Amino acid sequence: MARQALGKGLGALIKRNDARKEVPDTTEVDSDRVVLANTEDIQPSPFQPRRHFNEEQIAELADSIRERGLVQPLVVRRVDGKFELIAGERRLRAVRSLGLKEVKVVVMEASDQEVAEIALIENLQREDLTPLEEAEQYRLLQTKFGMKQEVIARHVGKSRTVVANMVRLLDLAEPVRNLLEKGDITVGHVKVLLQLKDDAQQEDAATRVARQGLTVRQTEQLVRSILNPAPKPQPQEQVLPEPYAQVCRQLSSDFGTRVNISLKGKSNGVIEIPYAGRDELVRILQMFGVDAPL
Fold first, then answer.
1. Measured on CA atoms in the order 21, 22, 23, 25, is the torsion positive or negative?
2. Catalytic residue positions?
3. What letter does residue 81 receive in the DSSP assignment?
4. Which of its termini does the chain have fewer beta carbons within 10 Å around, N or C?
5. Residue 3: how many CB atoms within 10 A of its CB?
6. Alpha-carbon dihedral of residues 248, 249, 253, 259, nearest 10 degrees?
7. Can you tell me whether residue 290 is helix, strand or coil?
8. CA dihedral 16, 95, 23, 14 (to 10 degrees)
């Protein structure tokens, strides 16, 4: 089954201009014409969401380009006399690894916001982004360009809820983000862990999930146990053997206050004689023959 197209294509996002544009080496071309550009004149996009590139995949792409040439040209815009990449960083890396000095490019006009959207959509279509890279690009569109989540969702072909949940991943404690980035835990796990607002609790729980290989359902149970810990069992009231209880009753009668014996083991314990107020303490002490001023 063919995968449904995600978001808008390049043509829907980039405003084409029919005017002729001057490019490096003073060659004039139409903005949508394929031209040759020096690979050293192509700068990476500051809006590229990907931080990690699979070197093995780039090597495979380089082998394909060596055999068949670059079938799909890079997409660039002109910034400060040089080309800035809009789409095709993996292809550019592959071409450079082959030592090629020139590459086919399509020169187009695009705003910073359009470039950021295109970079995100291109990577989402290829499923190349990690969850955190995707979340960071959504946040960039929100903070730098003031785009609402509803608009972002419409542009990338996802629901607003999906976008909102992805952005929430950036609220994770740093150690938890690292576990997600390494693939030790999944997005399903961290959505549950986000219920823990305390970073230390979140990190401890995430470490347990990764170490024990817990499922999402088991993670839900773990988080519930942290948020709603079972009440500690109350110590049962000690039941004194009858001979000790009889002694307590006798002492209580003699001192006029409740006397208790607490057993601390088979042969150890404490006799407790409580008092209420200074006068009662003086009275009890006098019964022991102590007449010291208090």
1. positive
2. 89
3. T
4. N
5. 7
6. 30
7. coil
8. 10
What distance in Å separates the CA atoms of residue 49 and residue 66, rounded to the nearest whole number?
27
Contact 160, 138 (CB under 8 A): no
The β-bridge relationship of strands 74-79 and 34-38 is: unpaired
Q: Quick: pLDDT tens for 193-202.
A: 999 999 999 9
**Cβ–Cβ < 8 Å for 70, 104:** yes
Which one-letter DSSP state was computed for residue 235? P
Residues 6+ apart with CB under 8 A from 30: 18, 20, 21
2 pLDDT higher than 70: no
How do residues 11-42 score in pLDDT, each as one tens digit? 444 443 433 333 333 333 344 577 888 888 89
The token pair at 21 is 């544009």
Q: Measuring CA to CA, how many Å separate 86 from each of 3, 14, 76, 112? A: 24, 10, 5, 10
Decide: 137 and 145 in contact? Cβ < 8 Å: no
Q: Is 94 exposed, middle or buried (0-12, 13-18, 19+ CB in 10 A)?
A: buried
Report d(CA 140, CA 261) in Å as an integer: 69
Q: Give me 215's structure tokens.
A: 């499922």
The per-residue pLDDT for range 55-69, each reduced to its tens digit, is 887 888 888 888 888
Full set of structural domains in the chain with CATH:
10-111+118-128 (3.90.1530.10), 132-224 (1.10.10.2830), 242-278 (no CATH)
Cα–Cα distance between 290 and 294 in angstroms, integer?
Answer: 11
Side chain identity, residue 116: A
* Residue 12 neighbours by CB under 8 Å, 6+ apart: none
